[in-house]
Fold:
Amino acid sequence: MATAAGDDAEIVLPPEDVEIPLAVDTKPSRPVRSARYFYRLENNRLVDCPDEEAQIFVYIAPTIDDEAELQELYNIDYHTLQSSLDPDELSRLEFETDHAALIFKRPKSFCADDNFLLKLTSTGVFLYEEQLVIVMPDDAPLFEGRVPFQIQSIHDVILRLLYQSTLHFEGHLKAINMLSDSLERRISTSLENRYLLNMFALEKSLVYIVNSISSNGALLERLRSSAERLGFDRDQTGIIEDMIIENKQCYRRAEIHTQVIGGLMDARASIVSHNLNQLIKKFTIWTVAIMLANLVIGVFSMNVDLPLPEDHSWWPFLLINMLALGTAGLVFWIWRVKKW
Structure:
């Protein structure tokens, strides 16, 4: 069911040979601008419309004036409104006098400035009798892609948002798997720790992703138990149960990725250390070989009488150079035989 969506240390940008899923945006991040969108349901579709005809109101990065309007016009509690904009807030369902407030987690699209750290954010959904208010801290595609059910009411819109969030998480897991495979190939030949730092960033992302998927799972369970109170019919309750199963599968997949990346992190660090040790060993052997050759040259270059003819013969020069090269060659021969 899943589809590919989207310190002081130096961390490289995503490798060029890694195919990034569609939900991953490699462009530098830009400041989020406040915006409003208005939709209504027409022939089982969501269409843009003027605000006076809208059933669904979407607020992107609301300003102070927008927040005041949301509190006054829609009677949204200030703390609940701030929770829908807080990336560290957990998913939850609350019932107010005239509406129900849902807060769920979703991943943000990855950009190059994030340095392999896949970030998460929250979204607030406020369900009224005939209206739906959605508050988001950033502009993201809400109603793109297909879902395996028709959008006939504002309750279906809520299910669509939650379903797309699960798909987005699955897309991020695919991206993490692809990025980790690419980093592993580089770590196997690397002599520096920048790729390890990238792996640490992916591991950190997975911890937050696992926690967010678990939080969304608790929200779905609460939706199922409160389906009648929220106005969900039998078919919609069945969709919620399917989404619970899908979310559990996504959670298990995220756990497996976390165990694989976290469990092998020490081994990857050992590989980098081993590569560096091998390089140092090669340099040491080269140094010993050159040192012995210099010793031979130095012995025959001393300002003392040597048992060599002084009639400007050419063969002493050849003998000395052959001895120097022979000692160096002996070191390399021992290196090859002993397989140091």
